[in-house]
Write a structure and sequence with these properties.
Elements lengths: L7 H9 L1 H32 L18 H21 L1 H32 L2 H4 L12 H15 L3
Helix pairs in contact: 1-2, 2-3, 3-4
């Protein structure tokens, strides 16, 4: 256990010395953290705007894609708003973080309960359990993408 603050920097400094730790912290400051924030903000904006952007000339059930500018502006507004809240009052930021955590747990719970209900209310043919790997692939690029997606979601990226 390393009793210093600094997270990854402290571990890298203790393990490999000050130069790799310094290089990592600069890479994180200039590339890793801003890119992660941008990706999360863009995903948030896309999911927020998609249901609100129906096609004007098409039927009621068809949708057009959200303009890139609208997604980028919404993402920038979200990042700026969170920065302002965090800069103004840390307690508000902590409350907002708790609110987001509760909504995430609620959303995951809804997905789990819906899956369990669908599993027990559908017959074996519609569940797809007779041939579970029927439409799967062994393409190495797709397997690598699935691992990367898992790392992205569980690594805090």
């Amino acid at each position: 256990m390393i009793d210093r603050s600094g997270g990854n920097y402290a571990y890298l400094d203790e393990s490999f010395g000050p130069l790799p730790a310094f290089c990592y912290i600069w890479a994180a400051l200039l590339i890793l953290i801003p890119v992660a924030i941008a990706i999360n903000a863009l995903a948030f904006a896309q999911y927020l705007l998609s249901p609100l952007w129906p096609a004007a000339s098409a039927g009621a059930n068809s949708f057009c894609s959200v303009p890139t500018e609208a997604v980028q502006l919404t993402a920038a507004f979200a990042v700026a708003s969170l920065c302002l809240i965090n800069s103004y009052n840390v307690r508000w930021a902590a409350r907002l973080q708790k609110f987001f955590m509760v909504t995430k747990v609620l959303a995951v719970s809804i997905v789990i309960v819906t899956g369990i209900v669908c599993f027990f209310t559908q017959d074996m043919q519609t569940r797809g359990l007779n041939a579970p790997f029927e439409q799967s692939t062994t393409d190495p690029s797709l397997i690598a993408l699935s691992f990367y997606s898992g790392l992205f979601s569980y690594g805090g990226w």
